[in-house]
Design goal:
The chain has 28 helices and 21 strands. It has 831 residues and is α+β, with helices and mostly antiparallel strands. The longest helix is centred in the first third of the chain and has 78 residues. It is elongated and about 210 Å long.
Length: 831
């Protein structure tokens, strides 16, 4: 039944039936005008209204019933995605024509759910496929991102490589352009490749790309060009290395372009573009300045050699000068005016010129000898002329050009050179050499610097004989002075005799030391010798003795000054040392006798009030110690009470004969001595002992702070000082203000330690004998490296530990000469 039909039934039943029933009842009973009727009508209307109020619910229940709830559940299930729900249609006949709207709606909803279910499955499949596609797309996108990242990385790396390559090429180009050499390459066509260094442009004054190399070497000389072309072709084609090297050796090592001397070196290299192709790398160096310097050095060598011969063989030189003057003024004009034939006169003059050339060559007057050789060559040509008249004419013309003034002028030129070096007074007297000692010293230094070692050694020995004196000459006034001093002190003294062999030395170097020995002689008289009465009471003869002996021992000067006086009192020395603040009582404990005696050398030890009570030494001896230290020497004191005292001074000696090579042992000894001296004088740090250590496997252990100083010249090597941080900070103590940052303190300590090491090394250089080949010192390099070590596998290494009262300091000498020989061959110097 349709919903519309049901509604009509409801309306009829609940709308018309009550009214029809009411009117029928009224008509039957005749109650229209009865009050009761009106009351009934009223109640009926009220009932109708109440029925109307309750009828929708009943209608809803009757028409919709549970279908609405089922539809709600159906919609909720569909909303939740459960598409297998079903609404019951309630059509028993399954006749769709007999279904109401509600059943049609439910049937449509069932069909809709079925369609949604089918579509949902298809949609889910499509979604799954879409998700798979999305995942695949996402994966591909990630892969693309990774590929892009890799591509960017490769691109960045390529850019870096390109930049690095550009920088390397730029650096190489910069190096080549600033190396002071020309670099170019060429292949079998003998044409300069497009790339060459800037120096090539400077050498050839133009761009040379593509130019023919033989033409660059010998412009305008076709024969030389053809020779180079043939030689280069051989080099490029030859496979045999030995033959190829022989061909290369025939190439010119030096070429002359205008006024420029160019040194050429050749390297056969592989072509970068052709794996089996060859190129020649040509390295060109402008050696014009070196050639000029070499000529100047050679000229200065000749001058020095001539100067030395003039000084050491003055009489021969003076006689040659006089005789050559006579030859130019008298003998040569006489030969030219002789009545002999032209040929005979040419022979006479030829022999005379040849003789003078030999004499001046022996005197190392090379320029004059060369000029005479030129004249001799001209005379040789005249000797070959057969016609006497022609010879006469040529002889006259020759000596018009080579007049006697010209010939003697050659000698005057050499004399001017000698005068510039030796001074004007050198030629003032015929029988005597007058030359300033300072000029001789300068001459020795120039000989060492310029002349070869063998020639320098021979000439130095001769020069020093002119300047050196026996050491006894510096002490000549002391015997008389000592006797007069003894008279002032009312003491009897035998004449002082200076004994020993004559030791020749540089008076300027040892003069100040000899001057300070006056304090030793004075103290020997004033405080060493007793009065005649005291000597007699002690069983001695009343005349005292003071002696001085001089000798040379192991390349050192040994001077011993002795007296036979009362000797030194150790106890008195210690008392005065404490009183004058020279040492504290605890420092004097355990001192040996010699260490106690050395206290008299202290600067503050002596005073007039205490020395007489001490009856020993002291006055002025600190000055002697200072000079001995300056010379790198040592003082030994031996004293025996009631028998006397001996002061022995051992000083390095600069001998007449220069040493064969550099004395490394002496250098090491002086380094140790100067280290102790500097620490004592500047920081009051005393050296207790020096011990040489073994360098295992040439390994040098380093303490916290180490300073390296390189040396070049006679001894190519390196010196290392190494100390603890505490020791170094003690050296820098006065320079470290409060509140300084730790990093700044470390830098300051490093700087002070470096300066201390530099000063010690510099002081040591000043003590090297003048005969040593020059030695130059580099700048110290100082580093902090605790627990490190330096190894020099091919060097000669020596180690010392210098123990001081402030801690140890290590000293190392590394001789690099052996290392250089191993690396470059025995004839090569230096690293």
């Amino acid at each position: 039944m349709q919903i519309r039909s049901k509604l009509m039934v409801v309306v009829f039943f609940f709308g018309f039936m009550p009214l029809v029933s009411l009117f029928w009842f009224v008509g039957r009973t005749g109650l229209e005008a009865h009050n009761g009727f009106q009351y009934a009508m009223t109640m009926t209307l009220i009932g109708t209204i109440l029925v109307g109020l309750f009828t929708p619910g009943l209608v809803k229940r009757w028409i919709f019933g549970s279908k609405l709830e089922n539809m709600q559940q159906f919609c909720q299930a569909v909303k939740e995605g459960r598409y297998d729900v079903h609404l019951p249609v309630g059509n028993s006949t399954n006749d769709q024509q007999d279904e109401n709207e509600w059943q049609v709606l439910m049937r449509h909803m069932n069909w809709m759910a079925h369609c949604i279910k089918v579509n949902a499955a298809d949609l889910q499949q499509a979604v799954d496929h879409l998700r798979e596609s999305q995942q695949e797309i996402r994966q591909q996108r990630d892969e693309l991102k990774q590929a892009q990242v890799r591509q960017l990385a490769v691109q960045a790396q390529l850019e870096r490589k390109t930049q690095d390559l550009s920088e390397v090429v730029g650096k190489i180009r910069n190096l080549l352009d600033n190396a002071g050499q020309g670099f170019l390459t060429f292949a079998g066509d003998l044409k300069v490749a497009g790339e060459y260094s800037a120096e090539c442009v400077m050498l050839f004054n133009r761009e040379i790309g593509g130019e023919f190399v033989p033409a660059l070497f010998y412009p305008g000389d076709e024969q030389q060009q053809n020779f180079l072309k043939a030689l280069f072709n051989k080099i490029f084609k030859e496979e045999d290395t030995f033959l190829r090297d022989n061909y290369i050796s025939l190439l010119p090592e030096e070429i002359l372009l205008g006024d420029t001397y160019i040194k050429a070196a050749y390297k056969l290299i592989q072509s970068p573009l052709e794996p089996y192709g060859r190129q020649i790398l040509l390295i060109l160096t402008d050696v014009t300045e070196q050639r000029c310097m070499a000529e100047q050095i050679e000229q200065e060598r000749n001058i020095l050699s001539m100067v030395v011969h003039a000084v050491t063989g003055y009489h021969e030189f003076s006689k040659a000068r006089q005789d050559y003057g006579a030859f130019c003024r008298e003998e040569l004009p006489a030969m030219l005016a002789s009545s002999r034939t032209a040929a005979e006169r040419v022979d006479m003059i030829f022999r005379a010129v040849h003789t003078w050339k030999g004499i001046f060559a022996q005197l190392d007057m090379q320029t004059l000898a060369a000029r005479l050789h030129e004249l001799e060559s001209q005379l040789e040509k005249l000797r070959n002329l057969l016609e006497d008249d022609l010879a006469e004419f040529e002889l006259t013309r020759l000596f018009t050009r080579y007049s006697q003034l010209v010939l003697y002028g050659w000698l005057e030129d050499e004399i001017r050179l000698l005068t510039n070096v030796l001074g004007e007074r050198f030629f003032q007297e015929e029988d005597k050499i007058i030359i300033e000692a300072g000029r001789l010293k300068q001459l020795e230094e120039r000989v060492l610097q310029i002349l070869p070692a063998g020639q320098a050694k021979r000439l130095l020995s001769e020069l020093r004989r002119l300047r050196y004196k026996p050491f006894t000459d510096l002490l000549q006034r002391y015997p008389e002075y000592t006797l007069s001093l003894a008279e002032r002190y009312d003491k009897l003294l035998r004449p002082v005799i200076i004994q020993g062999q004559p030791v020749w030395l540089d008076p300027d170097r040892y003069y100040d030391f000899a001057k300070t020995l006056i304090h030793v002689f004075r103290n020997a008289v004033a405080h060493g010798l007793e009065t005649p009465e005291e000597r007699l009471a002690m069983g001695k003869e009343e005349w005292g003795r003071i002696s001085c002996s001089i000798r040379e021992e192991d390349g050192r000067l040994v001077v011993a000054i002795s007296d036979d006086g009362r000797g030194m009192d150790e106890l008195a020395i210690k008392e005065v040392a404490i009183q004058k603040g020279v040492a504290r009582p605890e420092q004097l404990q355990g001192l040996s006798r010699e260490e106690t005696l050395r206290l008299v050398l202290a600067d503050r030890f002596s005073s007039a009030a205490t020395v007489d009570e001490l009856a020993g030494r002291g006055v002025g001896l600190s000055a002697v110690l200072e000079e001995v230290n300056r010379l790198g020497g040592q003082i030994h004191i031996v004293s025996e009470e009631k028998k006397g005292t001996t002061f022995t001074f051992v000083l390095p000696l600069e001998p007449l004969e220069p040493p064969e090579g550099f004395d490394v042992a002496f250098f090491a000894e002086q380094l140790q001595h100067q280290t102790g001296r500097y620490l004592s004088e500047e920081y009051r740090i005393q050296v207790e002992a020096v011990q040489e250590l073994a360098a295992e496997c040439n390994m040098i252990p380093m303490q916290e702070l180490s300073s390296f100083i390189d040396f070049q010249g006679a001894w190519p090597g390196r010196v290392m000082f190494s100390s603890s941080a505490g020791f170094a900070r003690q050296l820098a103590g006065d320079f470290l203000p409060d509140g300084m940052a730790a990093e700044e303190q470390q830098m300051l300590v490093e700087s002070v330690f470096s300066e201390v090491c530099n000063t010690i090394a510099g002081n040591t250089l000043q003590l090297l004998p003048g005969g040593q080949v020059p030695l130059s010192m580099g700048t110290p390099v100082t580093i902090w490296a605790e627990g490190a070590s330096a190894k020099y596998a091919a060097a000669a290494v020596r180690l010392w530990q210098i123990r001081t009262d402030a801690g140890p300091i290590a000293l190392s000498l590394i001789s690099l000469a052996k290392e250089r020989e191993d690396a470059y061959g025995a004839s090569t110097g230096g690293r």
